[in-house]
């Protein structure tokens, strides 16, 4: 089984993250599962809707490329799931999103859940995600660590920095847990990867869900069961002309 994992950071700029991510994905995947990790250049650092839009276009292109290279599934390894629905409609292999997978699974661990994002700029975005996935009544709240990507990447090799980030995560989570969240999660793979070392991680009794491990296992299940989305509605496959035109624009520019 071959799975393509699309990060929104840059392997050349964020080397420690990619090194740890590849090792972790290998450790949680089943024997025989090969996972290739790709990134974006420039990375998703100018946090904004415009950047998310740019990266979503690149992500769809990478999903198409992964399918043409024989991969069995694609993971959008970015909690905001930018380009997820478009990629799912562009290829006939399973395409899973870090955010969608985590939010839907959280409902099996508790009634209400909370998200801890890296920046307040994503507050509205995450509420919109919950609406899109039919989970707005389950999302208790969104908090922020106020930690830019470079700070999180630097903590990959700095234990003291990780402890500070863990404290920031827990401080942001506590009010949401107090408001009724039974599950909390990092709305991003960076802290999710950092905190993977924590066993049976909880914050004031609320389960802390690891989105990175979860999405990999769900991708493996989707491949093993041969699951595909319904193609008569929201995720109808794009016609060949649409694919050709999309690839032309990516290759040649608008």
- Silhouette: globular
Class of secondary structure makeup: alpha/beta
> For the record, what CATH class applies?
Alpha Beta
Describe the biggest sheet?
5 strands, mixed
Number of helices: 10
Give the end-to-end Cα distance, rounded to a whole number of Å. Answer: 35 Å
SSE layout:
Layout: E1 2-6, H1 15-28, E2 34-38, H2 49-68, E3 73-76, H3 84-90, E4 95-97, H4 98-106, E5 113-117, H5 123-132, E6 139-144, H6 149-154, H7 159-178, E7 183-186, H8 189-194, E8 202-203, E9 206-209, H9 211-225, H10 240-252
Parallel strand pairs: 1-2, 1-3, 3-4, 5-6, 5-7, 7-9
Antiparallel strand pairs: 8-9
Structural description of this entry:
- This protein is of the alpha/beta class.
- It has a single domain, classed as Rossmann fold (3-Layer(aba) Sandwich).
- It is 47% helix and 15% strand.
- The longest helix is centred in the first third of the chain and has 20 residues.
- The protein is globular.
- The model has no long low-confidence stretch (mean pLDDT 95).
Q: How would you concisely characterize the structure shown here?
A:
The chain has 254 residues and is α/β, with parallel strands linked by helices. Helix content is 47%, strand content 15%.
Short key terms for the protein model shown above:
Rossmann fold, 254 residues, five-stranded mixed sheet, single chain, alpha/beta
């Amino acid at each position: 089984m071959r799975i393509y994992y699309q990060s929104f950071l840059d392997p050349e700029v964020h080397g420690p993250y990619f090194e740890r991510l590849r090792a972790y994905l290998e450790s949680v995947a089943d024997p025989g599962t090969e996972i290739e990790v790709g990134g974006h250049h420039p990375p998703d650092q100018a946090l904004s809707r415009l950047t998310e839009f740019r990266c979503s276009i690149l992500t769809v292109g990478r999903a198409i490329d992964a399918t043409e290279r024989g991969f069995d599934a694609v993971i959008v390894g970015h909690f905001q799931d930018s380009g997820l629905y478009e990629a799912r409609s562009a290829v006939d292999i399973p395409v899973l999103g870090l955010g969608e997978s985590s939010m839907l699974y959280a409902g099996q661990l508790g009634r209400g859940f909370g998200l801890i994002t890296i920046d307040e700029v994503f507050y509205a975005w995450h509420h919109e995600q919950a609406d899109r996935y039919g989970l707005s009544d389950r999302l208790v709240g969104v908090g922020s660590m106020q930690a830019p990507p470079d700070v999180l990447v630097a903590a990959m090799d700095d234990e003291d920095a990780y402890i500070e980030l863990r404290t920031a995560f827990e401080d942001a989570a506590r009010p949401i847990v107090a408001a009724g969240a039974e599950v909390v999660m990092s709305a991003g793979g960076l802290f999710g990867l950092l905190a993977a070392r924590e066993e049976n991680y909880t914050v004031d009794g609320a389960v802390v869900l690891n989105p990175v491990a979860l999405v990999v296992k769900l991708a493996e299940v989707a491949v093993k069961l041969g699951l595909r989305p319904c193609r008569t509605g929201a995720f109808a496959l794009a016609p060949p002309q649409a694919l050709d035109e999309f690839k032309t624009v990516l290759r040649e520019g608008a």
